[in-house]
Amino acid sequence: MKDFRYLEETIQLRLDENLCTGCGNCVTVCPHRVFTMQDHKAKIDDRGGCMECGACSLNCPVAAIFVNPDEGCGCATLLIHSWLQRITGRKSSSACC
Question: Which residues, other chains included, contact 70 with Cβ-Cβ below 8 Å and sequence gap of 6+?
Answer without folding.
Answer: none
